[in-house]
Each structure stands twice: as C-alpha cells, then as structure tokens.
Amino acid sequence: MISFEQTQQDVAEVKKDLKELKALLLEKAETTTGGETPIKVDEVSKLIGYKKQTIYKYCRINKIPHHRKSNRLFFFKSEITDWVKLGKQKTITEIEADTDAFLSNRKKRQK
To answer: What's the pLDDT at 111?
Structure first.
C-alpha cells in the first residue's frame, strides 16, 4: 500500500513535470509564430501589393498562409514573406546551369 508521504512526493513530482511541460509548450508556441503579433488583411495588402479581394480569394482556395479565428482572418508577416519568396523565378543563368546538369547526368546514364 502506498503511504501518504509517498503520495505527496508523487503529486509534487507530477506538478514539477507539468510546469516543465507547460514551459516547453509556451516556448514552442513563441518560436512557431516568432513572438510576432498577427496582422490583418489591410496590412497584408500593403505588404505584398495585392487587392484585399485577391487576398480573400487566395485564403478561400488556401493559396496564401493564413489563420482563421472566430470567422476572422489573421496573418503573420514572416509567413507572408516566406510565401512570397517561394514564388522566386529562376534567372537565365540558373536555368542554363540546371539544363547543363540535367544533360550531363543523362549522358552519364546512357553510357
């Protein structure tokens, strides 16, 4: 049978573990959003130069990163800038380098 003292120690240990877990979750939440505050559609429109109507459309088809809370849209600046960076077009030099690498690998496989 477990003594009362052992039960108190177990409860204290569980409380300690719970505090550590809570601290880790809070830390993870801050790193996920970078501690930044959400911005609204108007600010996103100014940031990327799209009309609000286009941003709403992109949210509806899940083309732009967004968060929905109580039927309202929120964005994080870092997520929007990362999304814009994903659309980078390759330069002619990069395309030529990719083509040369592809052709050289293809020739190696044919031998």
So the answer is: 61
Helix (H, G, I), strand (E, B) or coil at 70: coil
User: Would you report the helix, strand and coil content of the chain in percent, each value rounded to 5?
Assistant: 70, 5, 25
Query: Among 38, 105, 106, 109, which Cα is nearest to 75's?
Result: 38
39: β partners: 75
Which parts of the chain register pLDDT below 50? none
Token output for 57 = 């459309």
Phi, psi of 23 (to 5 degrees): -65, -40
Q: Which amino acid is at 14?
A: V
Q: What are phi and psi of 7, to 5 degrees?
A: -65, -40
